[in-house]
Amino acid sequence: MIIEKGRMDTKTISNHIGYSAQEVKAIADSLINKGMIIDITSTEYESLHPMFAITNRYKKRCHEDRIVFKKNPKVDNISKLLEWPYDRARTK
């Protein structure tokens, strides 16, 4: 959702997905730890560019699974699919 809408706060995300603010905060913290989003303030979040977010997660997952990190076309394709909605949300 943050990819498509841009910067969002906990309350807005909560209203959109029907989770409590505490659940949204826990999910956001998890995504921050995975290198996929950043916290702008204590309650506002923004997605990293999809290429960075997906690559960060893939790199961390390789490390967790003790797999050699190398270029992966599937990972690149996922990020390319997300670039258009990401760019659209930031150029309105």
Q: Could you explain the architecture of this structure?
A:
With 92 residues, the chain is mainly α. The chain is built from five helices and three strands, in the order αβααββαα. The two termini are 16 Å apart.
Task: Note the main sheet.
Answer: 3 strands, antiparallel
Rg, alpha carbons: 14 Å
> In whole angstroms, how far apart are the ends?
16 Å
Mean pLDDT, all residues: 92
Shape, principal axes of CA atoms? globular
How many helices in DSSP terms?
5
Return the structural class.
mainly alpha
Q: Could you give the order of the helices and strands? A: HEHHEEHH
- What is the number of E strands? 3
Strand content: 5-15%
Low-confidence stretches: none
Strand order of the largest sheet: 1-3-2
Can you give the helix content as a percent range? 55-70%
Describe how the helices and strands are arranged.
Layout: H1 2-5, E1 8-9, H2 10-17, H3 21-33, E2 37-39, E3 44-47, H4 50-64, H5 73-90
State the main characteristics.
63% helix; mainly alpha; 5 helices; 92 residues
Quick gist of this model?
This protein has helices spanning 2-5, 10-17, 21-33, 50-64, 73-90, and strands spanning 8-9, 37-39, 44-47.
